[in-house]
Fold these 4 entries.
Entry 1:
Amino acid sequence: MDEDGFVRRWMLLEPIAKPNRTNQLFTSDYVRKALAEDRPTGIGTQMPKDGQSVTHKGTKLTWHALDATQWDAKLFYFAAAYGKPTYGVIFWTATVIEAPRDIPDAHLAVGSNSASMWWLNGKETAALFGDRRMVMDDVISPAVGLKKGRNVLYGAVINGPGLSDFAVRFVDGKGQPIRDITVGLR
C-alpha cells in the first residue's frame, strides 16, 4: 500500500482476448455475461501464485506478480511488456488484504478504465459499467467489512480500444483511507 492507501501489490493474469470494437457496449448485462464466460478455473477459490499457468479456452495464460509503481495498475503496459494483446481484453487480478482487526466500516473504493467488477471474500463488492476513464474512487461500495486476518480480493477489468488501468483502496465511512492493513500475495 502507499501513503494514500492504494493497493499496489497484485497478481495479474495475462489478458484474455475478448474483441470489442467499442467500450460503449459495457452495460451491466454485457459485462456480467462476458466475465462469467471468461472466468478461468480457480478464480475466486484459490489465490494464484506467481508463474502459475492456467489454460482457458485452449490458451495458456500465466499469473504474474506486479508491484505497481504508481497508485494505479497500468494494465495496458503490463500486457505490452509480456507481448500480449492490449486491446479487446479481459484482465483478472487478485490480492490478499491482511487486516489487524475486524473493520466493519471498510468500503472498497475503485476506479477503472474501462468496466470492472470486484469480489471480496467471494462476494460481489463493486461494479463499474460503461465506457469510463480511470477516476480515483469512482465507485465506493457500501460497507463490506474486512475481517481480522486474510481477506482475498479479486477483480476483472474489461476493455476494448484504448488504455486500461485500475486503482483500489479501502476507505472508512468518511472516505478516509484505511492505513493499518497490509497487502500480500499469499
Entry 2:
Amino acid sequence: MVDAGVVVDDNCIEQFKAFHQKSSNVRLIVFSINEVGDKVEVAKQVEKGGDCDTWETLCTNLLGTEYAEKSCWVVYNLEMTKEDQGVERQISKLIFLHWVPSKTKLKFKMLMSSTKQTLFTKLGCSMVNIEGTHLSDISEKNILDKLKSSI
C-alpha cells in the first residue's frame, strides 16, 4: 500500500503508551484522521466502567451511533475469562480495529487503508488486527472466534 503522507501525532503515541502500560484507567482509544487529512489524532478515550466497557457496548454505543458513518481506528483492551484445565484465568488482549463503514467515501477509504500500517507500526505493540465495515463483521462472536488462535 502506498504511504499517503499522513503523519501520526505524537499525542497518539503518548496516550497509547499510557494505555498499554495500564497507567491510565482507559478502556479504549479512538484514533482518526483530522479534517484536513494530514494527521492521525486521538479522537476519543473512554474509561473503564464507561459507556463502552464491553465489546458489545462499544459496538452499540460508539460504532453504531457516533461512528456509524465515520471511519476510525479503535484500540480496545478486551478482558475476558478463559478456562484452562479446569482453572479460570483472566486474559487481556489488545484489539486494533480498522473501522471503515460502507458509507465512507472512496477517497477516505483509500486514505484510511494507506495510513493503517503507519499507525499500527508507530504504536509498536502486538495487537489482534480486526477490520470491519458493518457491525455484523465485528460481532462479539466473530471477535472471539478470531481470538481463539491467539489465546
Entry 3:
Amino acid sequence: VGLPLACAWLRAGAKVIGVAKTNKKVSIINKGENPLIDEPSLTPIIRKYVMEKKFKATTNGEEAAKQAHVILIAVPTHVKWNKTGKPIDLSILVNVLRIVAKGLSKGKLAIIESTVPPGTTLNLAKPLLEKTSGLKAEKDFGLAYSPERIMASHALQDIEENYPKIVGAVGPRSLKAAKALYEVIAKKGVITLSSTTAAEFEKVAEGIYRDVNIALANELAKLAKLLNVDFEEVRRAANSQPYCHLHKPGIGVGGSCIPVYPYFALHVALKYNLDLTLTRIARMINETMPEYVANIAIKALEKAKIDIEKAKIGILGLAFRGNISDTRLTPVTDLVQHLESYGVRNIVIHDPYAQDNPTKYPLVRDVEKVVLSSDLIIIATDHNMYAKELPKLLSNTSRKLIIVDGRNVLQIRKVSRAKNVTYIRI
C-alpha cells in the first residue's frame, strides 16, 4: 500500500519520504528500483523521482515523521491463527504509532490507512499519539482515518482513478485538511464520513460483503454438484438478471484482506455481546473449501483406482489470486495439509509468479512437465496462462489425467475434446 501511495503523491508534486522496515527494501528504492513485482507501473515513477531527489527511503521512522508535514500510516494488521482462536494483532500499528508520536509537532496531520477494527483510531491511536507526544489531536495536530482501497497489480490506478477516497476524522479541522489533501490525488473525489469509526467500519464492511458473497457461491456450487448441475451455467444465467451478482466459487479465500477483515468485525461485536451469525458462518464456509476440494480429489482418485500414496498430484497456482505473486494466506496451504491427511505424498506446485512458497513441496515453473507427469491436477489459482495453455496440453496428453478445476478456469467444451481427461468443476 505504502509505495503505490507514495508514487501517487510524487506524481501530484509532493516530496516523499518512504519508511521501510528493512535495509534491503530501502536500498532497492534508493537505487531507483521497484521492489514490488506485482506493480510494474511504479518502476518509472520511482526511478524518476529518486533521480530528482524528491523521493527517498529510510528505516528511521521518527526522523521521517519529524521532517514531514503529513504522515501517512499504512502498515499491516493481522489476525493470529492459532489453537486458542484468532486474536487481532495490531502490534505493528502500535509500534509505528509510538514512533510517529515522537516526530509529531504542532500543525502536522497524521492519517491512518491500515484496515483496522472499528474504533481503533479513536480508542487506540488517538490516546497513544497524545500521551507520547504531549499534544492534543484536533487542537495541536490533525488526525484522520482513510482506508486504502486498492487491489494488487493495479494499486496506483485504484488510488488515482478507480475509487473515491473515504475519509473520517476526529474533528472538523482534521476532516477539512484530510479531504483537501486527498482531493489532490483522487480523481473520483472524496467521501467524508461522520467519524473515524464510520470510515473504519466502511472498509471492514466492504471485505465482509465480498466474503459473504463468495461463501454463498461456494455453498450453491456444492448443491449444484449434488444435483449434477453445472453451477457456472446456472451462475451466468442468474446474473442476466440485473439484481443478481453471483460470484464464482473457489477453493478458498486468500490474501491479507478478505480472510482477515470479518474477524475485525467479529472481535468488536463480541464486546457488545452480538453474534454476527452470517459473517461468522460465511468465514467458516470459505475456510473449509480447501478440505472440500481435497475430498473431491481423493474421491476421484479412488474412483479411478489410483493408489493414494503413489498418486502424483499437481497443483496449478500458489498465489491467492490470479496473475499476481502474493501467496499470503493462500488456501493452497490448507489444501495440501488436507491432501496429506488422506495419505497423499507426491505433490508438485506450479506458479508462474509466486516467489514465496509457504508449503514444503517443490515450486516449479514448467507447467507442461507438471501436467504431463501428474495423475491428478488441481487448478488452485486463476492465472490467465492456465486458461490459455491447458486446453492444448490436455489434448496432447496420452495418459489418463483427472482435472479438478478449483477456480472454474477451463471451458467444458474445450476440455471435453481431450479423450484421456476426466474434468471436475467444483
Entry 4:
Amino acid sequence: MDVRTDVDFQIVQEIAASPAAVDQALVDPEFLGRMAELPKLGSAEVLGQSRDGDVVRQQVRYLFQADLSSAITAVVDPKLLTWVEDSACDLAAHHTTCTIEPDHYENLLVASYEAGLAENGDTTRRTITGRLKVHVPLVGGKVERAILGGLEENAAAQADLLAAWIADR
C-alpha cells in the first residue's frame, strides 16, 4: 500500500527578459515546439490554443525521453510516457495554472503547478510551485525524485532557451 503524501515543489527561474516577453513566448506555438530541445523531452506538440481577453488556454503534449532504470521500465513502457499540459495563462496578471494529464498510466501520476512572473531588475523571476504524486508502490518515491530532478534540469535549460528566443525577436 502506498501511503506517502504528495510531493510539493518549487522551482525558481531567472530569465533575461521582461515578464510580458516571457508570457508571450510561453504561448507562442513556435517557441513551444522548441521545448523539444530541452533535456529529456523527445517532442513538444501544441494540440490546441484559444484566447479569451488576456487569458490563453492551451494544451501541449510532451514526450519524456531518457534512460530509465529497470525497476521503472518494469512498471511503465518508456514509449508511452507522454502527457498533456493543460494550462491557462493570464497575460495581464503574469500567472499560469497548469494540470498535467498523462496520456497513459493516468492512475499512476497526478501533478499540477502554478507559475508567476515578477520583474527582478533586468530579469524576470518565474516561480513555479506545484504538487506531484506517483502512485507506484515501492518505487513511487524514486520516480518522484527522478521527475523533480528532470524538472529542475529542464527549468534551467528553459530559462536559457527563453532568453535566447526573446533576444532573437
